[in-house]
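Collaborator request, handled under Task 6.
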Amino acid sequence: HFVGLKEKSTVLAEELSYGEQKLLTLACCLSTEAPMLLLDEPVSGVHPDMAGQILRLLQQLRDEGKVIVFIEHDISAVRQVADFVIVMDEGKVIAQGRPAEVLERPEIMEAYLA
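Structure tokens returned to the collaborator:
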């Protein structure tokens, strides 16, 4: 998969922006051809444009059948990528199901904002 870093091929990883480093990490994971990706907050701390690029890549991978398990606090990112969500609060599962059903529940948003 092309992650959009070809023009940076001569740049050291430590000189890449934080978002570009996340893309590089994702590219390394994809190079293993593992059937599943485990990601911890893939868009946390990156510029909104870069977050969009990462989310589009994750959507493409999902659409191609790649299993993606990720932890994310950005509800918008969850809505864009997840087919199924498990919401936890203080280590306990408080809801699970399709994002459109679960994320609209008032008690879920209350726990998220608490």
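The cover message to the collaborator said: "The mean pLDDT is 90. Residues 84-114 form one domain. Please let us know whether this matches your experimental observations."
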